[in-house]
Structure formats: C-alpha cells, structure tokens
C-alpha cells in the first residue's frame, strides 16, 4: 500500500469538486517568483515610456508579459487538475521558477538592445518543465491519456519553434514580429486542441482563487508606484503633485480591486469554450493592471523632472491601460454575468477614461470617473437583480 507521505507518489486526477480546495504554499511561492518577472516587465515599460519610447516599449512589454503569463497560467491549470505534491512535482515546479527568474533577468536586455536570449531560455525552461508532469499524468490517468499526451507533445513542439526562432532570426528583422505572433497562436492552440478529447479535472473554485491572487499581485504594482511618489515627495524638492499622484494611485487601486472582486463567481461554468475565454481573457486584465502601475511610475518621473514626456502624456500612460483593464473585466465577467444597463457600465466608462486626458488632463478626474463606475455598476446590478427576483418565473 502506498505510504501517504512517500517521496514519489502516483499522479491521478484531482477531484474537481473537492471541498475547501485552496492555493498551496508551493503555488504561492510560484506566484512570488512570477511577480518578480512582472515587476521587471513593468519597470522596463515605465522607463521606455518616460524616455519617450512608448512605440517600442509597449510591444516589448506585451511580448515579455505573454511569456510570463502563459507559463504561469499553464502551470496553474495543471496544478488544479493533478497536483500531488510529491518530490518530483515540487522539484519540477522549482525548475520552472528558475525559468521565471531567467525571464526576469532577460527583460532589461531585451528592452535595451533586443537581446532575447535569457527571455527565450527562461520561457523554454518554464514550459519544458511542465512536460514530465503531463507525462506522469498520462501514466496515472488512463481516461485522459490522449489529452495529457497532446499537452506534452504540443508544449514540446511549441518550444522547438521558439528555439528555432531564436537561432534563425533576430528581433530587428521585419519577419520577427509576425513569427512571434505565430508562436503565440501555436501556444494558445495547445489547450484548445488537447482539451477537446477529454477535459482535465481542474477545480473551478481553485482556479478562481488562483486568478484572484495574481490580480492582487498585479495591483500591487500600482501601490508600489504610490509609495514611490510619497518617497519622492519626502526626499526631493516637495511638489504637491506627487501627493496627488500617490492618492490617485491608492484610490484607483482600491476601485480596480472592487470592480474585480464582485459578489458573483467569475468562472460560472466549467464548459470548455467558456473556460478558454475566461482563462485567456485575463491576460488583458493582468497586463493592463501592471501597466497602470508603470504609468504611475512614469508620472512620478514627469513630476520630478526625470522624464522626457509631458504631464498629459503621463496621464495617458495611466488612462489607456486602466481603460484596457476595464474592457478586459467586461470581457471575462460583466458581459457574461451582469444584466441590463449594468452590463455596459465598464465599456462606457472605459471610453470616457481613455479619452479624458486628450481634453482635460487631470489624474484626479480619472480616479473620480473610476469610482463613479464602481458605484454605478453596483447600483444598477443590484436594481437589475431585484427586478429579476420580483418578476414572475
């Protein structure tokens, strides 16, 4: 009989209806390493925008963020379905964490001189570290053997593509961006292809929690920018605008949190098409949330005279990713869960926030609009829910 605490254990499927399923300490450690990579990407975006190189910095940011998010997401969904917490599982997860640190170390060289070596190397380590785990799952889950083998094969082929891209092309060639997009498409297709044979037994509430935790981590980037503004106000020549930046960052962070953590479950169905839309769509929220933090860091540089752009451009660096965050939340949640007018609150306010700096550059006004959107969305949703309860069946 298998000892309950043996170093090596079988990897059967987890119960998708297991009670009290929560994030494990290993998953939280994985998130900690992930946030280091996210912070590195946000910092590089911040410096690119502040230097007036947003046109180059934004595509680089999106490329590196995709690598970080995709590796995190694939590990998260695998762990939800097959985590057995034995020694090989822990060690392979730690190997993937090492890959995340390589990505973090390679982001600055990629932004500064288009050196993608560490980013590609770290990403391949993270992705290939998952392949032995899928093969173990194939051995111990015969009902989903085709699914797990498709994952293992698809991930391996995708990494061969990235290695070939690194060896044969340089980022300054015209074909490189298109080939990167093709690589992203290949990666995104693997789960959709694999899950159609037999869906893996991921735990819905566990996945909701894991995504919520990463959302909080991303929002921490904005709080960090708020702290930087207060630090600058206290150590350099005092400027009341730094206090405004810090307070606006605080209000916007709280409002973004409030919008995301509504009363209803985000992932209300375990159907494949819905899970794919919800899981993939979150990249908009995650990337936008971290970019809002980068935008606030840009504003600190603008106010302290360390940026090459105007204050209005700094406001735009906050407004555009904030509007993108709201649209991403609408895509994964509001359009599927809310009814009536409440469903359209976020798109409408996102449009207002995105265009406000063009006519009236005021960070406080952006924060006020976001707070109003929280109030309007909640009020209209409650009214809609009350009408639904009172209406005859």
Describe the structure.
With about 400 residues, the protein is mostly helical. The protein has two domains: about 170 residues, no CATH class; about 180 residues, I/LWEQ domain, CATH 1.20.1410. The chain contains 13 helices and no strands. Helix 7 packs antiparallel against helix 10, helix 8 runs parallel beside helix 10 and helix 9 runs parallel beside helix 13. The radius of gyration is 22 Å and the shape is globular. The model has no long low-confidence stretch (mean pLDDT about 90).
Please write out the topology.
Elements: H1 25-50, H2 54-82, H3 87-113, H4 117-128, H5 131-140, H6 145-168, H7 175-195, H8 204-235, H9 240-260, H10 272-303, H11 311-337, H12 345-359, H13 363-390
Task: Summarize this entry quickly.
This protein has 13 helices and no strands.
Helical segment count: 13
For the residues shown, what is the average pLDDT? Answer: 92
Distance between the ends: 54 Å
**Subunit arrangement of the protein:** single chain
Number of strands: 0
What's the number of domains?
A: 2
Report the sheet with the most strands, covering strand number, pairing sense and barrel closure. none
Please tell me how large the radius of gyration is. 22 Å
Helical content band: over 70%
Structural class label: mainly alpha
Indicate the overall shape. Answer: globular
Order of helices and strands: HHHHHHHHHHHHH
Tell me the CATH architecture of the largest domain: Up-down Bundle
């Amino acid at each position: 009989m298998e000892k309950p605490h043996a170093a090596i254990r079988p990897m059967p499927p987890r119960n998708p209806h297991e009670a009290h399923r929560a994030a494990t300490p290993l998953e939280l450690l994985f998130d900690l390493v992930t946030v280091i990579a996210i912070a590195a990407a946000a910092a590089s975006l911040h410096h690119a925008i502040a230097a007036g190189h947003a046109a180059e910095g934004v595509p680089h940011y999106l490329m590196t963020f995709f690598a970080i998010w995709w590796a995190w997401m694939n590990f998260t969904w695998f762990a939800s379905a097959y985590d057995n917490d034995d020694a090989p599982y822990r060690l392979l997860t730690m190997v993937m964490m090492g890959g995340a640190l390589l990505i973090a170390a390679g982001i600055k060289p990629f932004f500064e001189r288009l050196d993608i070596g560490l980013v590609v190397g770290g990403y391949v380590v993270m992705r290939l570290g998952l392949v032995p785990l899928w093969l173990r799952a194939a051995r111990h889950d015969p009902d989903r053997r085709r699914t797990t083998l498709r994952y293992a094969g698809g991930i391996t082929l995708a990494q061969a593509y990235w290695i070939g891209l690194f060896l044969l092309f340089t980022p300054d060639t015209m074909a490189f961006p298109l080939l990167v997009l093709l690589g992203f498409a290949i990666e995104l297709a693997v789960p959709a292809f694999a899950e159609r044979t037999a869906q893996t037994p991921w735990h819905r509430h566990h996945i909701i929690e894991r995504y919520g935790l990463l959302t909080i981590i991303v929002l921490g980037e904005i709080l960090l920018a708020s702290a930087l503004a207060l630090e600058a106000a206290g150590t350099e020549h005092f400027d009341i605008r730094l206090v405004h930046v810090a307070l606006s960052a605080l209000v916007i962070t709280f409002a973004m949190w409030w919008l995301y953590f509504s009363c209803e479950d985000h992932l209300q169905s375990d159907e494949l098409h819905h899970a794919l839309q919800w899981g993939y769509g979150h990249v908009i929220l995650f990337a936008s949330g971290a970019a809002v933090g980068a935008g606030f860091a840009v504003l600190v540089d603008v106010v302290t005279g360390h940026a090459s752009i105007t204050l209005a451009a700094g406001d735009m660096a906050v407004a555009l990713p904030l509007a993108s965050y709201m649209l991403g939340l609408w895509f994964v949640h509001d359009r599927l869960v809310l009814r009536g007018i409440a469903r359209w609150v976020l798109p409408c306010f996102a449009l207002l926030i995105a265009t406000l700096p063009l006519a009236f550059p005021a960070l406080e006004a952006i924060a006020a609009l976001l707070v109003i959107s929280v109030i309007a969305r909640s009020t209209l949703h409650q009214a809609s829910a009350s009408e639904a309860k009172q209406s005859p069946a």
